Amino acid sequence: MERHPPPKAGQGERRPAGTTMGERRQSLVGFDAAVNSAIGRRLRCRREELALTREKLAECAEISVQFLADIETGRKGMTVQTLRKLALALHCGADDLVFGAQPEAAAKFPALAARLDSLTPAQADLALVQKALPPAGQGKTDGD
Fold first, then answer.
1. pLDDT digits (tens, 9 = 90+) for 31-80
2. Rounded Cα gap, residues 57 and 122, in angstroms
3. In angstroms, rounded to a whole number, what is the distance separating the alpha carbons of residues 39 and 131?
4. How would you label 83-106 residue by residue, b for 16+ Cβ within 10 Å and e otherwise?
5. Least confident of 12-26, 73-87, 117-131
6. Angle between helix 21-49 and helix 65-72 axes, rounded to 10 deg
7. All structural domains of the chain
8. 75 CB contacts (<8 Å, ≥6 apart)?
9. Which residues contact 16 (CB under 8 A, 6 or more apart)?
10. Residue 101 pLDDT grade (very low, low, confident, very high; cuts 50, 70, 90)
11. Whole-number Å distance between alpha carbons of 135 and 117
12. Are 36 and 75 in contact (CB under 8 A)?
């Protein structure tokens, strides 16, 4: 396997003037840790709202209990695929886990928010499937 030397100063990734690559890397590590901790807190809160154990959520999301614990405590990050599995298992949007719930949406449409909150997990799954399907009459026809 061929190895390439690291980029020389002035090549590759740009960094703010006056910072070393080590300082930039440390800054990014701190940012990642803060993001992972915030996502983990939101994930745990949502799991507890649904009265799910770590074991049950890990099973639904097809990940290990230890990995879920590491995500919830911010020790580890996750792939987009894992984020998607967790969001589906928690019946919420991935953006709710990443950025936090957006209360203004519920304030604009309180009746809709109340109806959505009253859905069972099976009804919520069905609503997602129906949303993904084209409206009646707009699917394929025999003439296509």
1. 788 899 999 999 999 999 999 999 999 999 999 999 999 999 999 999 99
2. 16
3. 26
4. bebbbbbbbbebeebeeeeeeeee
5. 12-26
6. 110
7. 21-100 (1.10.260.40), 102-135 (no CATH)
8. 36
9. 24
10. confident
11. 24
12. yes
Phi-psi sector, 91: left (phi>0), alpha (psi -120 to 50), beta? left
pTM of the model: 0.56
Do 65 and 54 meet the contact criterion of CB atoms below 8 Å apart? yes
Q: What angle do CA 71, 131, 61 make, to 5 degrees?
A: 20
88, two tokens: 């589906």
